[in-house]
Amino acid sequence: MTSPFDLSGRRILVAGASAGIGLATAKLVASLGASVVLNGRDSARLEALLPQLPGQGHQVAAFDVSQLDALPAWLKNEVCVHGPLDGLAYCVGMQQTLPVRSFSAAHFDRIMHTNLGSALALARGLRQRGCSRPGTSMVLVSSIGGFLGQPGNVVYGASKAGLMSAARGLSMELLRDGIRVNSVAPAMIDTAMSRKAFAEMNEGQVDAILKRHPMGMGQPDDVAAPIAFLLSDASKWITGTNLTVDGGHMVG
Asked: Which of 16, 72, 185, 249 has the fewest CB atoms lying closer than 10 Å?
């Protein structure tokens, strides 16, 4: 009997594969048999990651996904030319703590562009002819910041709430294309981005955040596994939902 978690023969694009949740996801889906397309801005860094992936058939596809209008054509010409995708994990994210008294158009555009706009542009690209197979799954990495009110994270939280809403809307719009769309919402995960955020806080603020995680701070692998589940046939009857991955934060 074949495991529903088996990804053998699947091509999966991981956007934001250079580090953190994206890198953990790339390694996990490769170990489950997938051929992985590694996306990020730094081609040399991605090439250096290739030997870390088990299996074969992996590809580097460097591109700055903040180039929204160019993104669908890039996907078609650089990724789908090698064959249609069976999955896409959007693990790109940007967080910058900034109180609303310092709000600016530049800050808004930077966060929304990266956290939400690029995901929508990839969805546009994925539904192009020849870019996906029936049963393709798209997973967007959101955040529990989309649920919570956090001083200094108003724009970030709005962008992540937007991703969860986008997953619901896209799940209906792309259904006719045979594409499922879901999101995951992690709490604080031990990544370079969270360590940067901690560096901008005082000790009391950091301790308060850690105390709100009853199961301790999460690791990238803790999010990669739910993403792999949503990419696999184990979730083939799930679309338009958000999976909270927070170590008990929301109920603690």
From this structure: 72
Number of domains in the chain: 1
Summarize pLDDT for 156-213 with one digit per residue, the tens.
999 999 999 999 999 999 999 999 999 999 998 988 777 877 787 788 887 887 888 8
Query: Domain limits at 25?
Result: 11-245
Q: What is the dihedral of CA 80, 81, 83, 86, to 10 degrees?
A: 0
Task: Please identify which of the residues 132, 156, 197, 232 carries the catalytic annotation.
Answer: 156
Please indicate, yes or no, if residue 250 is contained in any of the structural domains. Answer: no
- The question of whether 156 is a catalytic residue gets the answer yes
Query: Is residue 101 classed exposed, middle or buried when 0-12, 13-18 and 19+ CB atoms within 10 A define those classes?
Result: exposed
The pTM for the full model equals 0.94
